[in-house]
Amino acid sequence: KLERVWMNLEHELRESFDDSTVIFLGDYCDRGPDTAKVLDFLVSLPERYPAQKHVFLCGNHDFAFAAFLRLLPPPPDGFSLSDTWKEYQKNEEREGWWSGEGYEEMHIQGRRWAGNIRDRYNVKKGMDY
Predict the structure, then answer these.
(1) Catalytic amino acids?
(2) Which domain holds residue 90?
(3) pTM, 2 dp
């Protein structure tokens, strides 16, 4: 599907395609089964199209994935990532935050998105997730 969209873009832009600026809007690792293929495709673009400029914005799914992989920089001023959880810790059990190996060094988004929601009813909002 991504290759088809890329070919459509090439067809629409015609001769200006080769030196275009292409902006990708994020969520490259959303729910699809081919995250690795999507990332490989995106990473290959600068080499395949050296005259183009590629801008890759980070979506919330990408941010959470990077957080889970512990790729985010540490908080400033000597704080630890666990310091950032305190405000949300009341949700930890209901949301089933990840507590596997290395969770102490993980941003809250990585813990939340990698976890397994135990209670899918949000009392505060009066609805299921």
Answers:
(1) 61
(2) 63-128
(3) 0.66
